[in-house]
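Would you mind writing out a protein's amino acid sequence and the numbers that encode its backbone to help me picture the idea?
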Amino acid sequence: MSATETFTMYSTTWCPFCNRLRQDIADAGLDYTEIDVDDDVAAGEIVKGINQGNRVVPTLVFADGSSLTNPSIHEVKDKLAATSA
Protein backbone atom coordinates (compact mmCIF):
# COMPACT_ATOMS: atom_id res chain seq x y z
CA MET A 1 0.00 0.00 0.00
CA SER A 2 1.48 3.35 -1.01
CA ALA A 3 1.22 6.61 0.93
CA THR A 4 -1.77 7.74 -1.17
CA GLU A 5 -3.69 4.49 -0.87
CA THR A 6 -5.87 4.34 2.18
CA PHE A 7 -6.97 0.70 1.98
CA THR A 8 -7.10 -2.43 -0.16
CA MET A 9 -10.44 -3.77 -1.37
CA TYR A 10 -10.64 -7.47 -2.17
CA SER A 11 -13.49 -7.99 -4.61
CA THR A 12 -14.80 -9.71 -7.75
CA THR A 13 -16.18 -8.23 -10.95
CA TRP A 14 -19.51 -10.05 -10.67
CA CYS A 15 -20.36 -9.22 -7.03
CA PRO A 16 -23.21 -6.66 -6.76
CA PHE A 17 -22.04 -5.57 -3.29
CA CYS A 18 -18.54 -4.96 -4.68
CA ASN A 19 -19.95 -3.00 -7.61
CA ARG A 20 -22.04 -0.81 -5.29
CA LEU A 21 -19.14 -0.12 -2.94
CA ARG A 22 -16.74 0.46 -5.86
CA GLN A 23 -19.06 3.18 -7.18
CA ASP A 24 -19.55 4.72 -3.72
CA ILE A 25 -15.77 4.83 -3.21
CA ALA A 26 -15.28 6.47 -6.61
CA ASP A 27 -18.00 9.03 -5.81
CA ALA A 28 -16.25 9.79 -2.51
CA GLY A 29 -12.91 10.25 -4.29
CA LEU A 30 -11.02 7.81 -2.07
CA ASP A 31 -7.67 6.32 -3.08
CA TYR A 32 -7.39 2.55 -2.76
CA THR A 33 -6.03 -0.60 -4.31
CA GLU A 34 -8.43 -3.23 -5.62
CA ILE A 35 -7.56 -6.91 -5.96
CA ASP A 36 -9.87 -9.39 -7.70
CA VAL A 37 -9.88 -12.62 -5.69
CA ASP A 38 -10.92 -14.57 -8.81
CA ASP A 39 -7.63 -13.57 -10.45
CA ASP A 40 -5.38 -13.86 -7.38
CA VAL A 41 -5.48 -17.11 -5.40
CA ALA A 42 -3.33 -15.67 -2.60
CA ALA A 43 -5.76 -12.76 -2.22
CA GLY A 44 -8.61 -15.23 -1.86
CA GLU A 45 -6.69 -16.93 0.95
CA ILE A 46 -6.17 -13.57 2.69
CA VAL A 47 -9.92 -12.93 2.52
CA LYS A 48 -10.68 -16.41 3.88
CA GLY A 49 -8.23 -15.80 6.74
CA ILE A 50 -10.04 -12.61 7.68
CA ASN A 51 -13.53 -14.09 7.36
CA GLN A 52 -13.27 -17.36 9.31
CA GLY A 53 -12.59 -19.47 6.22
CA ASN A 54 -15.19 -17.82 3.99
CA ARG A 55 -14.36 -15.96 0.80
CA VAL A 56 -16.61 -12.97 1.44
CA VAL A 57 -16.29 -9.87 -0.74
CA PRO A 58 -15.97 -6.99 -0.58
CA THR A 59 -13.40 -7.19 2.20
CA LEU A 60 -11.36 -4.07 2.94
CA VAL A 61 -7.99 -4.08 4.72
CA PHE A 62 -6.63 -0.82 6.13
CA ALA A 63 -3.04 0.33 6.69
CA ASP A 64 -3.30 -0.49 10.40
CA GLY A 65 -4.17 -4.13 9.58
CA SER A 66 -7.83 -3.87 10.54
CA SER A 67 -10.57 -4.94 8.15
CA LEU A 68 -14.22 -4.49 7.25
CA THR A 69 -16.36 -7.02 5.41
CA ASN A 70 -19.16 -5.80 3.13
CA PRO A 71 -19.16 -2.32 4.66
CA SER A 72 -21.23 0.68 3.66
CA ILE A 73 -19.42 3.78 2.41
CA HIS A 74 -20.30 5.41 5.74
CA GLU A 75 -18.48 2.64 7.62
CA VAL A 76 -15.47 3.07 5.33
CA LYS A 77 -15.38 6.83 5.88
CA ASP A 78 -15.78 6.39 9.66
CA LYS A 79 -12.92 3.87 9.72
CA LEU A 80 -10.66 6.16 7.68
CA ALA A 81 -11.45 9.08 9.98
CA ALA A 82 -10.66 6.96 13.05
CA THR A 83 -7.36 5.66 11.67
CA SER A 84 -6.15 9.08 10.53
CA ALA A 85 -6.92 10.78 13.85
